[in-house]
Amino acid sequence: MNQYIEETEKGLVHTYNRFPVVLDHGEGVYLYDTEGKKYLDFAAGIAVCGLGYGNQELNDTLKTQIDKLMHTSNLYYNTSCGQAAEALKRVSGMDRVFFTNSGTEANEGALKAVRKYAWKKGSGRYEFIAMENSFHGRSMGAVSVTGTESYRTPYEPLIQGVKFAKFNDLDSVKALVSDKTCAIILEPLQGEGGINIATPEFMKGIRKLCDKEGILMICDEIQCGMGRTGKMFAWQHYGTKPDIMTMAKAIGSGVPVGAFAMTEAVAEYSLEPGDHGTTYGGNPFACAAVAKTIEIFEKKNLVAHVHEVGEYLSQKLDELLKECDAVVQKKGIGLIQGIEITRPVGEVSAEALKEGLLVISAKGNVLRLVPPLVIEKKQIDEFVEKIKHILS
Fold first, then answer.
1. Which of 48, 143, 291, 373 has the CB geometry, 3.0–4.6 Å to 249, for a possible disulfide?
2. Residue from 98, 181, 166 nearest 133 by CA
3. What are the structural domains, with CATH classification, of the chain?
4. Of the given ranges (13-27, 48-62, 314-328), which has the lowest mean pLDDT?
5. CA 336/CA 153 separation, integer angstroms
6. Which letter, b or e, does each residue of 269-281 get, where b requires 16 or more Cβ atoms within 10 Å of its Cβ?
7. What is the pLDDT of residues 103-121, one digit of tens each?
């Protein structure tokens, strides 16, 4: 294993802090390394593998699609793209969908769509209000609206006209609004930023403010969407439908794919042919993954399952908070939860790896818990037993 890691590192630009493990295959909610060691996965590829590993129905669909058609380009229609778009429209409540290759690209497209909307309306608006501690990606546009200074500083000057408000502080948002504000972008639940969930007052206040001032509301559902909170998309907890929504990660169950979607009212004054494009976005293989993923979600009623096991996880974390001095706070909802701990989170993640448990971190010394959505209560019990042993 170590030789494989050394040889691989020689050929890569060193931009990732990888764990010293070489994963080989997965089954259900478990991953196995090249030496056969078994790991309970509470990372799910950073909230990507909602269906877990080895879902035969999904695998069979992808194998069939490989034999039919892998790629054509967006100069032509293809059947799986239409099926995926209709499925996403149905579960999201949006009207128009643009497929991308990642969440970062989805946010990039959403920002361009807003600027084009403002241009076609002749409003002269161009400013964005984003949130502190937010994360929207690492391209130049996406990092410009990411609310962590260390992500932005090395790449300045970035896109002009971005202001940062305090998350869950409506007054701080209102103080930044001007006649140049074109959109407010936020995650209903900040994942990278520390598992910070928006209050109902904040979400509803943002929607009301946008309606009053003629501002578009963008919800970044890349990590918190696709059933992870116990609703298909997190904004549905609040009844605050955005004008534009971005998504990725779990919509393809591991196949790289993202999308941004918008209402018809926005689409009417937004992107036109030639304004935005991608060679691979909407390709038959990726869209087959999206369509089948949503079909499985609906057939298995995974959103209800997440609500049930998420409540169980929450109860177990409450118990852990009482019993373990190293745990100082519990945050989140559904199957995107976190525990703030007193020990260095990197150290705990490394110890967890030795114990056969995969966990990742979030800002604020938080262990981020985003297991596959198919996880059962018995595996949550297994997690609690392992993490309690590590933290004791």
1. 48
2. 166
3. 68-300 (3.40.640.10)
4. 13-27
5. 29
6. ebbeeeebebebb
7. 999 999 999 999 999 999 9
